[in-house]
């Protein structure tokens, strides 16, 4: 069998375990954290959730993970079968799946008492004994997605969970909406609201997890950070770029590479791609790359810089669904590498730069890299 990752698609995402471990340890040290909830939802931001979970558990002593859905949680549970490896389900969940959650030790975020009441009835109606469902109580301090808005709402959930054998309290949290931008006043309001609610009910701080990535990076001296809940920084990028800078030495976990599968010469006056938006002013060499927006290289990246043999070249014309054209300073061999983001010699294209060019964010770019792009582990 051909083990060349480029043989079928002509592109691959290379991921580094060493960089992932470095970033986990670096952000924990920076935030003075004792516990990390590693956010590996959306296939670990496109990097590979099973891979990331295995690496972080085995090499960074991380045993708390967060995903978005029950199915994501079940996938991770396959590689982390031990109960000590806790898997949090962020966001609203379908209560009808509660027995699946309990059976597989998946701990849902819960935002209202009605969900808990329905969950209790379903758990008690189960034909087989189930372990207590571990739950994380959400407080809505300004994100507007889910959670208790008042102390009374939080108190009703908290007292119910503490008084029911079907449940076990695993956490209490909120999510900051402006941790990675300049709206400090809104951040301060959310922080004050959270602290007021949990302290009024005398909820033990060991349950709190309030520091998301932006908080761990930029507000670590303003809030409790014994437990941090981090996503983007794990993968080596600054979620606040370009509005906020960080000197933290994060290492990009992923490099996106493609190959040139065709080389030809454009004659002066000839155009390329849909809309004929690029016309050659003189004879020039170009390469065809078997990669397009269906693979996660967005149409908005048309005109973006790529790296070929350590030299900056450009995407010419519009990126199409499955292919794109790049400029060449001279003819190159078939299968020459094209770096879409990553390092090539002295030149570098960061995921932040690529996302900014496409008027997007790194999260969206990484999670959009398609399933027909293989993930390749660079190191163990």
TrEMBL record:
Residues 253-378 form the Alanine racemase C-terminal domain. InterPro entries: Ala_racemase, Ala_racemase/Decarboxylase_C, Ala_racemase_C, Ala_racemase_N, Ala_racemase_pyridoxalP-BS, PLP-binding_barrel. Pathway: Amino-acid biosynthesis; D-alanine biosynthesis; D-alanine from L-alanine: step 1/1. The active site is at 41 (proton acceptor), 274 (proton acceptor). Keywords: Isomerase, Pyridoxal phosphate. Its EC number is 5.1.1.1. One of its GO terms (molecular function) is alanine racemase activity. The modification N6-(pyridoxal phosphate)lysine is found at residue 41. It catalyses: L-alanine = D-alanine. Substrate binds at residues 145, 321. Its cofactor is pyridoxal 5'-phosphate. Catalyzes the interconversion of L-alanine and D-alanine. May also act on other amino acids. Belongs to the alanine racemase family. PANTHER family: ALANINE RACEMASE, ALANINE RACEMASE, CATABOLIC-RELATED. NCBIfam families: alr (TIGR00492). This is Alanine racemase.
């Amino acid at each position: 069998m051909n083990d060349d990752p480029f043989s079928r698609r002509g592109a691959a995402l290379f991921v580094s375990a060493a960089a992932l471990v470095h970033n986990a340890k670096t952000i924990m040290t920076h935030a003075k954290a004792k516990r990390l909830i590693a956010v590996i939802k959306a296939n670990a931001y496109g990097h590979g959730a099973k891979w990331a979970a295995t690496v972080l558990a085995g090499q960074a002593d991380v045993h708390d993970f967060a995903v978005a859905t029950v199915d994501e949680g079940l996938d991770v549970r396959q590689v982390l079968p031990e109960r000590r490896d806790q898997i949090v389900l962020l966001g609203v969940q379908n209560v009808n799946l509660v027995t699946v959650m309990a059976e597989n030790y998946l701990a849902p975020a819960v935002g209202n008492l009605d969900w808990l009441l329905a969950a209790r009835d379903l758990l008690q109606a189960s034909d087989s004994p189930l372990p207590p469902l571990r739950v994380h109580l959400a407080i809505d301090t300004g994100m507007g997605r889910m959670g208790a808005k008042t102390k009374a709402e939080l108190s009703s959930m908290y007292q119910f969970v503490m008084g029911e054998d079907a449940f076990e309290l695993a956490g209490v949290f909120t999510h900051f909406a402006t941790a990675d931008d300049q709206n400090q006043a809104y951040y301060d309001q959310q922080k004050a609201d959270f602290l007021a609610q949990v302290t009024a009910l005398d909820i033990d701080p060991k349950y709190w997890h309030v520091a998301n990535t932006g908080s761990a990076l930029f507000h670590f001296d303003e809030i409790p950070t014994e437990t941090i809940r981090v996503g983007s920084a794990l993968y080596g990028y600054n979620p606040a770029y370009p509005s906020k800078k960080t000197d933290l030495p994060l290492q990009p976990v992923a490099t996106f590479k493609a190959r040139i599968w065709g080389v030809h010469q454009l004659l002066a006056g000839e155009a390329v791609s849909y809309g004929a938006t690029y016309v050659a002013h003189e004879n020039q060499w170009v390469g065809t790359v078997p990669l397009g927006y269906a693979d996660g290289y967005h149409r908005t990246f048309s005109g973006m810089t790529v790296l070929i043999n350590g030299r900056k070249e450009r995407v010419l014309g519009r990126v199409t669904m499955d292919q794109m054209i790049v400029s060449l300073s001279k003819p190159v061999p078939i299968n020459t590498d094209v770096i879409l983001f990553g390092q090539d010699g002295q030149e570098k294209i960061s995921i932040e730069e690529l996302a900014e060019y496409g008027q997007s964010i790194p999260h969206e770019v990484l999670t959009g890299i398609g399933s027909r792009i293989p993930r390749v582990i660079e190191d163990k």
